[in-house]
Amino acid sequence: MDKDNILEVKDLRVNIHMMEGELTAVRGVNFEIKKGETLGLVGESGCGKSLTCKAILAINDKKCEAKGSIKFNSDESGEVEILDLNPKGEEIRSIRGKQISMIFQEPMVAFSPMYTIGNQINECTRLHITKDKKKSKEISMAVMKKVGIANVEKRYNQYPHEFSGGMLQRALIAMALVCNPKMLIADEPTTALDVTIQAQILELMKSLQKDFNTAILFITHDLGVVAKMCDRVAVMYLGKIVESADTETIYANPQHPYTKGLIGSVHKIGGNREDRLFSIEGTVPLAMNLPVQCGFYDRCTVAIDGLCNKAEPELVEIEPGHKVACFACNHEGCKAECERARKEIAEREERERKEAELAAQEAALGKNKKKLFGRRA
Amino acid sequence: MSEMNKENILEVRHIHKRFTSKGITVKAVTDVSFNVKPGETIGIVGESGCGKTTLGRCIVRAYEASEGEVWYRTEAGEEVDFLKVDNKKMKSIRKEIQMIFQDPYSSLDPRMTVLDIIKEPLKANYPEMSKDEMDQRAKEMAVKVGLNPMYLMRYPHAFSGGQRQRIGIARALVVRPQIIVCDEAVSALDVSIQAQVINLLRDLQKEFGLTYLFISHDLSVVEHISDKVGVMYLGQMVEFCETEKLYSKPMHPYTEALLSAVPVADSTFKMERIPLQGEIPNPANPPSGCFFHERCRYCTGRCITDAPTLKQMPDGRLCACHRAEELDLHGFDLEAMAKAAEK
Questions:
Q1: Looking at chain A from residue 226 to 285, which residues have their Cβ under 8 Å from any Cβ of chain B?
Q2: Rounded to the nearest 5 degrees, what angle is found at the Cα of A193, between the Cα atoms of A189 and A194?
Q3: In chain A, which ranges are E strands?
């Protein structure tokens, strides 16, 4: 594992066991985050963003099964493979909340309505920093002040329903930051908020990141927020990363048709208002019994028949730091990927043809047997 | 007072809405007035709790406004106060003003098939229409908004968010209204689906000559779709004018702050954000004078005591600020951004 990296995710797969069968929500995701960096994970709802980050904390639902590798570079215990740990064990609990913490999507739901805000922030301090009640209260209050909650003495003893949405989100950030985590996972932290509050919260997160050198995994579907917050962006579609690059490159030179579509479907202020917005037709397919093809094939406008519907492209590096998984973009790396896929398709078809022949032969044989031995065979 | 301007289809005049509960009165909407021309799209923006949804609901008469008038020119050319017409008259013109609701998940009855949902406004407004004709019209409308007629016998749970919103649009359009109030019609959708629905709304507007009242908190979407924009704060309209003017040169300090907080999907874009101190005040106990003065960085003594009214500015816009004319506020550099967008 690279020393600069705080987290390395390799070939992460998350399966959900359902009544109807197995749903593969995350299908082989690779990425790494450097210390102090912000990585944006972008995609539509249902593309597996939230499941990916839940897997990092090992807080996935019982029905979900994560495979692959998530390596976390912990200062205390060195390199840790999170997926090998018991999700209820001592070791993961010393990481969860202390070294990796998470800001959840809806602040109104993330807090328990039965306890005061102070009590809930305190839970984290008492578990990880100090058992001393007085001291832990001091630490919690200091963090609450830091995230811009005014009148902390009074707020500490209030219940979540007495907070507004923006204040509650601040309290949630305070709870996530109280142990000075090395890594922060922010799952749509501002989606439920108004633009003015959103801008405040984003600036707050940025300044806190500077103070603590925290790495942030920022999950969102808002491309405006990504432009403001992130150093690098990974675009996810149907459980796979289809493009990743630094933020400027993604906006200036997107390669994957899905990324292009996402950027095109956001109206830019100042743009021609008579123009129609570019829209990606159709919807994200259900990740169950997927055929072997590019996940975006059904909605893609530049798909190559015979290639895109028969093989799935892998992520290739077309420029340093810019990776794309698409057969249709004209780069050397992608052409090599096309060749590989064509070979694979040819081999598979050859194999299938042989298998079919074999099956036909066997069927013919079976018929003969039936003739010879009657119904008992 | 009752005479309408010939050019307008809708004139909203001094609407007030107060909610009283446990002896506390909340002024959700205070003295909002504006005019709408046929075929226009009016955007209403503001933070949550500013009364934009309440205003929309008052206009379609889903809430009874406490005070005020909504003058409406009917398809037959009559001028009526939509809020005061009697039930009999209401029945004949209700269908002309329709609404698309915010949440596509809770605004459709889960126990009705999609066909029944789209047909329901017809049943209510055209009791004499035959069943076959209703089916026919509902199906036509479903096709228009991009729903597969094969799926109309299914129930709403079988549809995705974007498709549900299309059902909501079909339901509003099936009675051929003149005005549609879209209350956060695309806010609950993913960006790519959002683009589909916005394009659909645009196409339908062209086809049927619809007038939209587009209520949203997303300033980029509003800029895209609206001809005129009204900004609301704590139940009051603080600024109302053409979209370009509002975005390039706001005159109310709240508009300026709101614009500066918009996240722009361009990594090279830089704009100084104007911080707003504190939070939206409690509407049950609003501040004295100008409602915005506690959070305004241009506040003077007069703002604390005197409440400004919505006045016409030299360039024709409406703005409620004592200092509107002397302040030099900044919006977006639309020309530069248009160039960047072209690239």
A1: 226-228, 247-248, 250-252, 261-273, 276-281, 283
A2: 140
A3: 5-18, 21-34, 38-42, 64-74, 78-81, 100-103, 183-187, 215-220, 232-237, 240-246, 316-319, 322-324
Cβ–Cβ contact B330 with A under 8 A: no
**Cβ(B47)–Cβ(B280) below 8 Å:** yes
| Cα distance between residue A104 and residue A110, in whole Å | 6
Task: Calculate the alpha carbon distances from A45 to A50, A97, B195, B317 in Å.
Answer: 9, 25, 15, 40
Question: Which of these ranges, A172-181, A360-369, B268-277, has the smallest mean pLDDT?
Answer: B268-277
Rounded distance between C-alpha atoms, residue B181 and residue B172, angstroms? 9
Q: Residue A299's pLDDT is what?
A: 86
Residues A156, A157, A161, CA angle at the centre, nearest 5°?
100
Cβ atoms of A41 and A236 within 8 Å: the answer is yes
A-chain CB neighbours of B265 within 8 Å are 223-224, 226-227, 251, 263, 266, 268
Q: Which amino acid is at B274?
A: I
Three-class HEC string of B5-63: CCCCCEEEEEEEEEEEECCEEEEEEEEEEEEECCCCEEEEECCCCCCHHHHHHHHCCCC
Q: How many CA atoms lie within 13 A of A120 on its CB side?
A: 21
Counting residues of chain B whose pLDDT is more than 70, the rounded percentage is: 99
- Residue A108 is predicted with a pLDDT of 81
B198 chain-A contacts, CB cut-off 8 A:
267, 277
Could you report the predicted ipTM of this complex, rounded to two decimals? 0.77
Tokens of B260: 């500066």
With 0-12 / 13-18 / 19 or more C-beta atoms within 10 angstroms meaning exposed / middle / buried, residue A242 is buried
The predicted-structure confidence for B297-330, as pLDDT tens digits, reads as follows 888 888 888 888 888 888 888 999 988 888 888 8
Q: Decide if B195 and A277 are in contact by the 8 Å CB cutoff.
A: yes
**What's the average model confidence in pLDDT over A80-93?**
87
B-facing residues of A in 322-361 (CB < 8 A) are none
- Over range B161-190, report the average pLDDT: 87
| pLDDT tens digits, one per residue of B322-336 | 888 888 888 888 777
pTM of the predicted model as reported, rounded to 2 decimal places: 0.83
Crossing angle between the packed helical segments B191-208 and A257-264, to the nearest 10 degrees: 50
Pairing, β B79-81 against β B97-100: unpaired
Stretch 172-201 of chain A: residues touching chain B, C-beta under 8 Å: 194-200
Chain A residues inside the 8 Å CB shell of B269: 227
What's the whole-number mean pLDDT along residues A349-373?
Answer: 83
Measure the CA–CA gap between B43 and A287, rounded to whole angstroms. 38
The CA-based dihedral angle spanning residues B113, B186, A226, A143, taken in that order and rounded to the nearest 10 degrees: -90
What are the backbone angles phi and psi of residue B101, rounded to the nearest 5°?
A: -90, 165
3-class SS of residue A69: strand
B245, two tokens: 């003017």
List the one residue out of B204, B195, B338 whose CA is nearest residue A277: B195
Among A36, A35, A15, A10, which Cα is nearest to A25's? A15
Q: Token match 């499941």: residue?
A: A51
Reading the block at residue A328, the tokens are 């249709």
pLDDT given at position A156: 93
Determine, for residues A267 and B199 on separate chains, whether the beta-carbon distance falls below 8 Å.
no
Interface of B with A in 304-323 (CB under 8 A): none
Identify all chain A residues contacting B272, using CB atoms and an 8 Å cutoff.
none
For B245, nearest residue in chain A (alpha carbons): A270
